[in-house]
Specification:
Elements (H helix, E strand, L loop, with lengths): L18 H6 L20 H7 L4 H4 L3 H15 L4 E2 L6 H6 L3 E4 L3 E4 L6 H5 L10 H14 L4 E6 L1 H10 L7 H9 L1 H24 L4 E6 L7 H7 L1 H9 L13 E5 L6 H6 L4 E3 L6 H8 L4 E6 L8 H15 L5 E5 L9 H15 L2
Parallel strand pairs: 1-4, 4-5, 5-6, 6-7, 7-8, 8-9
Antiparallel strand pairs: 2-3
Helix pairs in contact: 4-7, 8-9, 8-10, 9-10, 10-12, 15-16
EC number: 4.1.1.37
Function: Catalyzes the decarboxylation of four acetate groups of uroporphyrinogen-III to yield coproporphyrinogen-III.
Pathway: Porphyrin-containing compound metabolism; protoporphyrin-IX biosynthesis; coproporphyrinogen-III from 5-aminolevulinate: step 4/4
């Protein structure tokens, strides 16, 4: 599917027939779909202008702001999917956990989870607190038309790291120590977080999201054995919470992504993903070998490449597109989020080039 078409491909009549959904299911596509993690955010001047004076967690709970911010990169770049503007810790905040996102630091927990009692004291996420989320998603689905909206949630392990560490961490030492020393409490904590993530995603799917992505940003700090025993069942529970494949309106593609997870790619797929997200450390053709022919891949241009000259960007885009052909289906993306200093014009040119290279 490398020939360049003489005319633009016929657009999808609906999100369910979009190239994103088709690639996720391993079906033929009109052209390789493109979207970028953190495409709605700091790299866009219109985002910075709109967010001025509004704290992150407040913006995430304002349907008007969520709608506009989510739409901005679709208008500017012509990407093939929107992803809900949200934050990984938002379900915890809505449930009542005291969290603040500090500029230059990230989420900071006022009272970290350090004991069995702390686990049991965590408030549950009640679905009726998510009316703002359902409103935003319904508005977006209307505005987007045939362009699919991807729902968003953080995976249980990554949310647990923030709760236990009290904020971002490089070593995640407290988290792993708690996991080893308090296995029963660890299981209860991740059970609760899985229910929360499933509730958050279900609200989005029921309001019209066409796919979901579960972010396990820090799963790469674990060994394969620890991931398989202590984390994978809880991530699977999130996807199971949406219902099985073929079960009505919630039968949407599931994308699962983590950073530094090259040794975990097969297991990440086993957690229930249709699409395994791959960071830049593993070439997509090798990732396809590890994951197998039953799942599609997403990725995996290094975000730092976008800060280089255009010739380098073009060369690396062509490499990712070529390696992605080894997969059952390929969703072009970065290997992590868009860096704040990225020129928006470069992102637009990447979308155009991928479409040009893959149009049928």
């Amino acid at each position: 599917m490398t020939a360049v078409a003489d005319a633009a491909p016929t657009p999808a009549p609906s999100p369910a027939d979009s190239d994103l959904v088709r690639a996720a299911r391993g079906l033929p596509v009109r052209r390789t779909p493109v979207w970028f993690m953190r495409q709605a955010g700091r790299s866009l001047p219109e985002y910075r202008a709109l967010r001025a004076g509004t704290r992150m967690l407040e913006a995430c709970q304002d349907p008007d702001l969520v709608t506009e911010i989510t739409l901005q990169p679709v208008r500017r770049h012509g990407v093939d999917a929107a992803i809900l503007f949200s934050d990984i810790v938002l379900p915890l905040v809505v449930a009542g956990v005291d969290i603040d996102i500090k500029p230059g630091v990230g989420p900071v927990i006022a009272a970290p989870v350090r004991s069995v009692a702390d686990v049991d004291a965590l408030p549950p996420l009640e679905p009726d607190r998510l009316a703002f989320l359902a409103t935003a998603v319904r508005r977006l689905v209307t505005e987007l038309g045939a362009t699919p909206l991807i729902g968003f949630a953080g995976a249980p392990f990554t949310l647990a790291t923030y709760l236990i560490e009290g904020g971002p961490s490089k070593e995640h030492a407290r988290t792993k120590a708690f996991m080893y020393a308090e296995p029963a409490a660890w299981g209860r904590l991740l059970d609760r977080l899985a229910v929360s993530a499933a509730t958050f995603l279900t609200t989005q799917v029921d309001a019209g999201a066409s796919a979901v992505q579960l972010f396990d940003s820090w799963a790469g700090v674990l060994s394969a054995a620890d991931y398989a025993e202590r984390v994978l069942p809880h991530s699977r529970a999130v996807f199971d919470g949406l219902g099985g494949h073929g079960q009505g309106d919630r039968d949407v593609p599931r994308i699962h992504f983590g950073v530094g997870t090259g040794e975990l790619l097969t297991l990440i797929g086993d957690a229930g993903a249709d699409v395994v997200g791959v960071d830049w450390r593993v070439p997509l053709d090798e990732a396809a070998r590890r994951v197998g022919p039953q799942r599609s891949l997403q990725g995996n241009l290094d975000p730092a490449v976008l800060l280089a000259d255009r010739a380098t960007v073009d060369r690396e885009v062509r490499r990712v597109v070529a390696q992605g052909r080894a997969a059952r289906g390929h969703v072009f993306n970065l290997g992590h989020g868009v860096l704040p200093d990225t020129d928006p014009g470069v992102l637009t040119s990447v979308v155009d080039l991928v479409h040009e290279l893959t149009a049928t």
